[in-house]
Amino acid sequence: MGKIENNLLAAIETNGLSFIVSVAVFGLLFYLARRRVNFGVRVLIGLGIGLAAGILFQNLDLEIKGISTFGAIYVSLIRMLVIPLVFVLVLNSIASLTSLDDLRKIGFKTFAWFLGTTGAASVIGLVVALLFHPGKGIAQEVPENFAPREIPTFSEVVLDLVPSNPINEAANGKVIPVLIFAIFLAAALIKTGSKNAEAVKPVRDFIQSSTQVLHQAVKFVIRLTPYGVFALIAGAASRYGWETLQELGSVIVSSYAALILHFVLVFGGLVLLVAKVNPVRFFRKIYPTIAVAFTTRSSYATLPVNLEVITKRLHVSPRIASFVAPLGASVNFNGCGGVWPAIVAVFTAEVFGIHLTVTDYVILVLVSIISSIGVAGVPGPAVISTTVVLTALGLPLEGIAIVAGVEALIDMGRTAVNATGTTVTSLLVAHSEGEFDRKAFNRGEDEEIALNAV
């Protein structure tokens, strides 16, 4: 028997139950796909079974590595597409504009909504934290090995965003430099095309063809979503026990209360009052985005799904979606940059007995808006935004270490809010530009984004 077979048998023996459960659930989800069960329903089933399996494995103190491995594979596959997707889609979106004035107009509207909703999220997080008093009565030592992340200087931040070597930036997974490089190329394409349309026609054709090929590649990977959701949620549920949740329950409750309020009041209000569409119908249509963001905890990993949802289910023009969605995955963080720093700041003040003034609250909101720009859309970097806010308020950074035990659980809700904020902004910008097909939206033409067949 070969080495590969021996390793496979050893893995099955070590994670026997995990392997059996995975095969059974994957078989069920595959059967439901063949029976043409709705994609959203299959995602929900995978999430529910994963939650139950994770709790069971945690209570039995059993390994769940086999299941978690597939979740990691799913996230890796979907991240694989992020860099080429961002580059080609941003290039294609901007190159489709007729002038640089159009680029400035759409860019201004997009950033205005991103920053405005982040500010609203910070205010809601602050108000909820002041009502719930998270951290009151908690006495916990700071872990000895805790080391807060270093806050980069302004010049370091700027230099890190400028793409000195686009190939190297792409290889290192730095999305914002790649995005800036794509904007430069697209602006040059527009300028050159205004003088000589024939000279840029081959480039435009290549970009459009690449976009179609990438969309097909995205569909291949997204079809694995129900399986990936099951694996990711099972791993998360098995990692945290009731003791951790009970001790920091006030942080979890206040965080999700603020996230839900922002979701309903701000997002729902903007959709209803500005875009003038039914919020319930809107949220039902974007369910795939919410589910993938919640389980992957990554705005970048959610980007391919979000693009499909925005164009195929919301019926926003590809031109707007291809510009707003990739940009939102890099700079729009209502949950991570708005709600979370406010919750942690009030929590830290409660734990260490520090009184915050009205001036502190104003500084908190303003710094949250500024620090949210450029936060990378991958699990964990909300710590940077929170560190900046705590430093600006003069609060001990040890507060971040205390909430670290449940931070990953809250990050699920934060990322879902981040991705939803990008979807809402796409709708608002498209509505203002006349590139939202309201009739198709109201007719309920919800394409299953080519995911019913596996």
Q: What would you note in describing this structure?
A:
By secondary structure, this protein is an all-alpha fold. It has a single domain (3-442), classed as Sodium:dicarboxylate symporter (Proton glutamate symport protein, Orthogonal Bundle), CATH 1.10.3860. It is 78% helix and 0% strand. The chain has 23 helices and no strands. The protein has helices at residues 3-14, 16-34, 39-60, 65-80, 82-95, 100-132, 154-161, 166-171, 175-195, 197-222, 225-239, 242-247, 249-273, 279-285, 287-296, 299-313, 318-331, 334-351, 358-371, 382-393, 398-402, 404-433, 438-442. Helix 17 (318-331) packs antiparallel against helix 22 (404-433). Residues 376-380 and 449-454 have low confidence and may be disordered.
**CATH topology, which one?**
Proton glutamate symport protein
The total strand number stands at 0
Q: What's the average pLDDT?
A: 79
* Amino- and carboxy-terminal Cα gap: 33 Å
CATH superfamily membership: Sodium:dicarboxylate symporter
Any idea what the shape is? globular
Helix/strand order = HHHHHHHHHHHHHHHHHHHHHHH
How many strands, which pairing sense, and closed or not: the largest β-sheet?
Answer: none
